[in-house]
Amino acid sequence: MSKGHIGVTSENIFPIIKKFLYSDHEIFLRELVSNAVDASQKLKTLASVGEFKGEMGELKVKVTIDEKKKTLTISDRGVGMTAEEIDKYINQIAFSGAEEFLDKYKNDANAIIGHFGLGFYSSFMVAKKVEIQTLSHQEGAQAVKWSCDGSPEYTLEDIKKDDRGTDIVLYIDDENKQFLEKAEITRLLNKYCRFLPVEVAFGKKTEWKDGKEVELEEDNVVNETNPLWTKKPADLKDEDYNKFYRDLYPMSEDPIFNIHLNVDYPFNLTGILYFPKIKNNVEVQKNKIQLYSNQVFITDSVENIVPEFLTLLHGVLDSPDIPLNVSRSYLQADGNVKKISNHITKKVADRLAEIFKNDRKGFEEKWDSLKLFIEYGMLTEEKFYDKAQKFYLFKNTDGKYFTFDEYKDIIKENQTDKDKQLVYLYTTNVEEQHSFIEGAKAKGYDVLEMDGQLDSHFINQLEQKFEKSRFVRVDGDVAEKLIPKENTLESKLSSGDKDDLTSVFSAQVPSTDKMNFIVTFEAMGADANPAIITQQEFMRRMKEMSAMQGGGMNFYGEMPDSYQLVVNENHPLVERILSDKNEKVGEQVNSVRSKIESLNGKRQELEKAKEGKKDEEVPQVQKDELADVDKKISELNTKKTEILSGFSTDNKLVSQLIDLALLSNNMLKGEALTKFVKRSIDLI
């Protein structure tokens, strides 16, 4: 038996492993099983080239637990090691500049392990002692046992071992007893070793017999050595792809379709990506792509490794060009990873274009599930936008689908405004905005459904991409003003009438901290509604985006919703309210207005006397007189408003027209709705 010191430049590697790798300590099993698989595959390679002529037999990797001895053992029948090879591969660890490196990567376990090839040494995260019992495949080799208790000292001695290969025996420490539990090891093997290319067995298969679980003779193999992505697409059917998807995601609905990747130049990449039936929630869908290197699981946190929009896809990617044991930050900066990312984006776009071209009807049927994903890609990846603009589909309120070019041709004649801008009308809720949709259709306009989670952002992007075009929500204005044309209807109201009616309607519009209303007037046809509520497009869109992303947009999110109550100047009911106003309070209002006009005349004279003079050159008497006039005008305006508000409060028709406008926007609720119903009965 010989003793020696492990060749490390840091004083003691083991406390470093324990301290800095502890948060990711479960990866030890992946490392050790992967090493065992590598040893098995090396033997296959040697046999294939004639360097190993012995009986290969079964190359299964076995994982066993001994609860009494508190050991976990990983065994293989691969190439094994000689004493010299143990000295080379186990005892000599290139670990220079340890302190500097650890300071840089102290929060990233994978970086430490991967950067220095310390896969085997990850076992010391969970074990107080580790043994290697190994017999090389080489003819006449002597079996040896290497043992280390977590100090730089090790022992190496000859042993008797009947079978070639290696057993790694971990004496699990008290802090990591969970790794002696069958359920925990099963979980880790399923997570990290599910698709390894050599069979991995853990215990025996069991079955229920006579009301109890009985162990069988057959090994319990935990992995699929030839997963679907390693097979040729020509040999697979839709059922195969759907079954594999259900194996990966047992609780999910069947996907819409898939992309089978098989690239061997300029890098190696295989995998299957699935388009899931995406619900209207981006966040829930992420982290469903599993990343592998030679069938060894790396991570399912693929943000910043693949383009963000691709994180909505499900499936697996496997590339030997992606290093196994590295940090995610390293992966993000890796040249091969970037090339792979760009290639996947292209393949996804090409596949969508192919389906659209070959089966447009089927593509349209899947559109509601695809739309969120495609918009996400177009918003975040310029190259994807360039390809996707050919197959992105607008859907209108009649359920018909159009490409960008098709839709432009349909609306350009009737939906071009007086400034030669093409106006795209859209709704975000067909039911709530139904009356506005019908009003737009009555004028021959077409209305798009843009009710998706990302549509506010997407509309902004399209306005930047499309030439001389803008998007207007169908309830953004009255139908006559959604697409301004040269011809306008003449108003039947004077400016004084509008002024009075502004006070009349303003007295009854709702007023809360969360919403405010501005009364405006518009000359519409007599058949249009007497009053309509609209919301200014820019502010509404900013608030919608604010609700999604927060951050710097919070300014808009905290502002109250601002609406316009647009009164139809030419509607008979509005004329009736005006007539009623003139009859009941007309003399009072005209008397006050006459006084205001007289004071306004005097104010103009006083302002004219100030012209050309500096403030200090104007006599104080004139300043006081002007201030007095302003005060009287303000008081009279207040009085006029009070008279008109008093008239409004007792006028059921004003209340009814406002409530009808609120009701058509789904904004009349609670007590206000109860009052409306009672008033409607009274009026009938």
Short note summarizing the structure:
This protein has 22 helices and 22 strands. By secondary structure, it is α+β, with helices and mostly antiparallel strands. The chain folds into four domains: 2-221, Heat Shock Protein 90; 228-360, 2-Layer Sandwich (Ribosomal Protein S5, domain 2); 393-482, Rossmann fold (3-Layer(aba) Sandwich); 495-683, Heat shock protein 90, C-terminal domain (Four Helix Bundle (Hemerythrin (Met), subunit A)).
**Average of the residue pLDDT scores:** 85
Backbone structural class: alpha+beta
Give the overall shape: elongated
Q: How many extended strands?
A: 22
Total domains, how many?
4
Per CATH, the class of the largest domain reads Alpha Beta
What is the topology, as strand order, of the major beta sheet?
Answer: 1-6-5-4-7-3-2-8-9
**Percent of residues in β-strands:** 15-25%
Tally of individual helices: 22
CATH topology of the largest domain: Heat Shock Protein 90
Quote the distance from N terminus to C terminus.
108 Å
CATH superfamily assignment of the largest domain? Answer: Histidine kinase-like ATPase, C-terminal domain
Could you explain the architecture of this structure?
This protein has 684 residues and is an alpha+beta fold. It folds into four domains: 2-221, Histidine kinase-like ATPase, C-terminal domain (Heat Shock Protein 90, 2-Layer Sandwich), CATH 3.30.565; 228-360, Ribosomal Protein S5, domain 2 (2-Layer Sandwich), CATH 3.30.230.80; 393-482, 3-Layer(aba) Sandwich (Rossmann fold); 495-683, Up-down Bundle (Four Helix Bundle (Hemerythrin (Met), subunit A)), CATH 1.20.120.790. The protein is built from 22 helices and 22 strands. The strands form five sheets. Strands 1-6-5-4-7-3-2-8-9 form a nine-stranded mixed sheet, with helices on one face. Helix 16 (495-506) packs across helix 20 (620-649) and helix 21 (652-664) packs across helix 22 (670-683).
